[in-house]
Design a protein that fits this description.
- It catalyses: (sulfur carrier)-H + L-cysteine = (sulfur carrier)-SH + L-alanine.
- It is an enzyme of class 2 (transferase).
- The chain is an alpha/beta fold.
- It has two domains: 131 residues, Aspartate Aminotransferase, domain 1 (Alpha-Beta Complex), CATH 3.90.1150; 255 residues, 3-Layer(aba) Sandwich (Aspartate Aminotransferase, domain 2), CATH 3.40.640.10.
- The protein contains 14 helices and 17 strands.
- The structure holds pyridoxal-5'-phosphate.
- The site of pyridoxal-5'-phosphate has 13 residues, from helix 4.
């Protein structure tokens, strides 16, 4: 049994370093999370003992590797409450999963004059695949807007989703605004109009309990690396009947049933969508990350982040010269907090915070249409995870205060 939070000093040795002569405070978790020793050990163990290609060999190592790969799938299945292992497809990550749906289901189902509805807060990964599909198919791409305090506007969702809508694709949790969107409600709205609901779970699965059956999403994609697994591994969940009716995404080894000179048939789910040698070690690392999070408890992850946000958000909102984007109510907020300092470029702010050992992200966060809607070119983003502490929050707030004073020579304009 993995010991929770209290042992993080040994679980996450990367966090024990100094950066620019200060103890590291890692607050770039929405970009990627650090890996616990258990995940690193699982990778090392696989390469030291079991490395072989899966599904192809009858020798002992191949059987061990295949068992570990398929066990990882089962772990993920239970973690997201998917009904069957056939509905869990290993991908490279969220981007790959969403492109898979757009290039197969979308290609098959969307026609000229149809509508695809997304939201203005989408990450480019859940925007460009639909935008390009709409261009290819002469379909219309529509956007659900935001309420005044930066939440998804559900009244607008009801207006945008119509009987002409074929696909609704919305993020479960925003990587900028820190809001959680009501996917269950959106799925109901989509289904009432004969459309499917595609959920982007990149910022949700690492931080909260996700039950894909309860949400009633038709497809749901997420990335391993944001939930402490290695990079290059992710998951696409899909309802079995939809997946079964979809054409393959890529062609090659592993995904065939029989190949003739002029035609081929496809193997069953989920392997129909796993062409070529997969990221075997990555999936095993993902299984270890699922074990780690399960042992810690997703309720505890959520509670821990909520406690930190309740301390951080109101103090940041109250700081003169700071603009916080998204809702200001901590109860409506995930551990993603995005802000700007008056008159300072976000990159300068992030660089100044790095000088204090505090790692945050600055930029458009792969959400340029959202930046335009917020009338910003870029923002600063601090994002929390289960290993962050109240001391980290204090360090961030102090570093922001010092940054303001440094650039403004001590005179900060009132809000
Ligand atoms: N969707 C959201 C909401 C994200 O935050 C991200 C990554 O930042 C992605 C999709 C893309 O994830 P990946 O780059 O792992 O494919």
């Amino acid at each position: 049994m993995i010991k929770p939070r209290e042992t993080h000093a040994t679980d996450f040795s990367i966090l024990q370093q100094r950066v620019n002569d200060e103890p590291l405070v890692y607050l770039d978790n929405a970009a990627t999370a650090q890996k616990p020793q258990a995940v690193i050990d699982a990778l090392t163990h696989f390469y030291q003992h079991d490395n072989a290609n899966v599904h192809r060999g009858v020798h002992t190592l191949a059987e061990r590797a295949t068992a570990a790969y398929e066990q990882a799938r089962e772990k993920v299945q239970h973690f997201i409450h998917a009904p069957e292992m056939e509905t869990v497809i290993f991908t490279k990550g969220t981007t790959d999963g969403l492109n898979l749906v757009a290039s197969t289901y979308g290609e098959q189902q969307v026609h000229a004059g149809d509508e695809i509805v997304i939201s203005i807060m989408e990450h480019h990964s859940n925007l460009i695949p639909w935008q390009q599909l709409a261009i290819r198919k002469h379909a219309t791409l529509k956007y659900i807007g935001l309420t005044a305090d930066g939440e998804l506007d559900l009244a607008d969702a009801a207006r945008q989703i119509t009987p002409r809508t074929k696909i609704v694709a919305v993020t479960h949790a925003s990587n900028v605004l820190g809001v959680v969107n009501p996917l269950k409600q959106l799925a109901r709205l989509a289904h009432q109009n004969g459309a499917v609901l595609v959920g982007d779970g990149a910022q949700a699965v690492p931080h909260m309990k996700v039950d894909v059956q309860d949400l009633d999403v038709d497809f749901y994609a997420f990335s391993g690396h944001k939930m402490m697994a290695p990079t290059g591994i992710g998951v696409l969940y899909g309802k079995k009947a939809l997946l079964a009716a979809m054409p393959p995404y890529q062609f090659g080894g592993e995904m065939i049933d029989f190949v003739h000179q002029q035609s081929s048939t496809w193997t069953q789910l989920p392997w129909k969508f796993e062409a070529g040698t997969q990221n075997i070690a990555g999936s095993i690392g993902l299984g270890a990350a699922v074990d780690y999070l399960t042992a810690y408890g997703m309720d505890r992850v959520h509670e821990r982040e909520a406690t930190l946000v309740a301390n951080l958000l109101p103090r940041l909102v109250a700081m003169p010269g700071v603009t916080v984007f998204g809702p200001h109510d901590p109860a409506k907020h995930t551990g993603v907090i995005t802000f700007n300092l008056d008159g300072l470029h976000p990159h300068d702010v992030a660089t100044a915070l790095d000088m204090e050992g505090v790692a945050v992200r600055a930029g458009h966060h792969c959400a340029q249409p959202l930046m335009a809607a917020l009338h910003q070119v870029a923002t600063v983003r601090a994002s929390l995870y289960l290993y962050n502490t109240q001391a980290d929050v204090e360090r961030l707030l102090t570093a922001i205060q010092e940054t303001k004073e440094f650039f403004n020579h001590g005179s900060v304009s009132a809000k």
